[in-house]
UniProtKB/TrEMBL annotation:
Alphabetized UniProt keyword annotations: Aminotransferase, Pyridoxal phosphate, Transferase
Family: Belongs to the class-I pyridoxal-phosphate-dependent aminotransferase family.
Cited InterPro entries: Aminotransferase_I/II_large, AspAT/PAT-like, NHTrfase_class1_PyrdxlP-BS, PyrdxlP-dep_Trfase, PyrdxlP-dep_Trfase_major, PyrdxlP-dep_Trfase_small
Catalytic reaction annotation: L-aspartate + 2-oxoglutarate = oxaloacetate + L-glutamate
Keyword field contains Ubl conjugation: no
GO molecular function: transaminase activity
PROSITE patterns reported for this sequence: AA_TRANSFER_CLASS_1
A Pfam family hit: Aminotran_1_2
Record-given protein name: Aminotransferase
SUPFAM superfamilies (UniProt xref): PLP-dependent transferases (SSF53383)
Organism this protein belongs to: Acidimangrovimonas pyrenivorans
């Protein structure tokens, strides 16, 4: 049977594809399937296992019949636990299928066509695409290494217009690990005091993985509470990426609007996964300290190794589990015209998958995750060193 397909992409999908991070990870998997020896340091997924007591709680929930639909905003027990930890009430909490859905719910619930969302770059690859899908316009503000990859108050003030609807922050940051201090958050809040139409989304998914003092925007600027959405979840700190549980904490009217979106898209999050998340939040938290210490040790090894390479400079991240080195010298050394070309060359020559900085809005860098095992980190760094080793580089 022949004929012309009637498929047509919606205009809002223009330029939107699967994220470059996922594309690289899938390319690495495809090369492995072909028999290539490939090391991937491209994905933000801890190699630590989900804690045993969390898995046991999931088993118990399933065995007890907790396998049916859940309330759209989340199970009462999990919402209460999240609220208690945040010092708020359950009516200000929504549980979703991952933190990414929290972001999408918020944008779909609040943006009209052409509304602007200010986001400092480098930032997580999905932010801009989620805003675009919701009809908004991403306003990306480059924040180079010279300013610690962080937004300055005067830059925020210049970026705000009559169409500004949100400021999106991420601390600790993906991909840089940068942390906004209490004073830096206060300075941004003072700018926002003159612009009550601008809401603040504070993505704090890496808060338990801070190596330096960390403050929530909710604590630093309580006067913003009625227009502040905190995004968090269990994926990173508790090694529960596949369980797909994230949550938002915000004013009740915002949460209700986000719930209306979620109710028409996915309904409530998985019942068994919510039971597991409850166990993670209410169980022994000592494991967080142990894993954070392990990640700090990995950070120190990776940063030292990167700074020893020709053409590479890397500041130690203050949190999360990513290094974001400047590779402009290495690009020149290898004759790579862009960071994307450099990463492709490293994958082709050395079988190492890393992510170009352009994916995060700041070219000239690359992101390496140190959430991998020590063996994978050693292998990956050895491969990068071999490509950049002193002496003539093969064409």
């Amino acid at each position: 049977m022949t004929g012309t397909s009637s498929f047509r992409r919606a205009e809002r999908m223009s330029g939107i594809e699967i994220s470059e991070i996922v594309q690289l990870s899938e390319a690495a998997a495809a090369l492995r399937a072909e028999g290539r020896d490939v090391v991937a340091l491209s994905t933000g997924e801890p190699d630590f296992p989900t804690p045993p007591h969390v898995i046991a709680a999931a088993h118990a929930a399933a065995a007890a019949g907790q396998t049916r639909y859940t309330p759209t905003l989340g199970t009462p027990a999990l919402r209460a636990a999240i609220a208690a930890a945040a010092g708020t009430v359950a009516g200000e909490v929504i549980v979703s299928t991952g933190a990414k859905q929290v972001l999408a719910n918020a944008m779909l619930a609040t943006l009209d066509p052409g509304d602007e969302v200010i986001m400092p770059a480098p930032c997580w690859t999905s932010y801009a695409d989620i805003v675009t899908l919701a009809g908004g316009r991403p306003v990306v503000l480059p924040c180079p290494a010279a300013q610690g990859f962080k937004l300055r108050p005067e830059e925020l003030a210049r970026a705000i217009t009559g169409r500004s609807r949100w400021l999106m922050l991420n601390s600790p940051s993906n991909p840089t690990g940068a942390i906004y201090s209490r004073e830096e958050l206060r300075a941004l809040a003072e700018v926002l005091a003159d612009h009550p139409q601008v809401m603040v989304l504070s993505d704090e998914i890496y808060r338990h993985l801070a190596f330096s003092p960390w403050t929530s925007m909710r604590e630093a600027a309580p006067e913003l509470t009625e227009r502040l959405l905190i995004v968090d979840g269990v994926s990173k700190a508790y090694s529960m990426t596949g369980w797909r549980i994230g949550w938002g904490i915000g004013p009740a009217p915002m949460i209700r609007a986000m719930g209306a979106v979620q109710g028409q898209v996915t309904s409530g999050a998985s019942s068994v996964s919510q039971a597991a998340a409850l166990a993670a939040l209410t169980g022994d938290q000592g494991l967080l300290d142990t894993r954070r210490a392990a990640l700090r040790a990995r950070r120190d090894r990776v940063v030292a190794a990167l700074n020893a390479l020709p053409g590479v400079t890397c500041a130690a991240p203050d949190g999360a589990f990513y290094a974001f080195p400047d590779i402009t010298g290495a690009m020149e050394r290898l004759g790579a015209e862009s960071d994307a070309a450099f990463c492709k060359l490293v994958l082709d020559r050395a079988g190492l998958a890393i992510v170009p900085g352009r994916a995060f809005g700041l070219p000239g860098h690359a992101r390496l995750s140190f959430a991998y095992s020590d063996a994978d980190l050693d292998a990956g760094l050895d491969r990068l060193s071999a490509v950049l080793a002193p002496g003539p580089v093969a064409a």
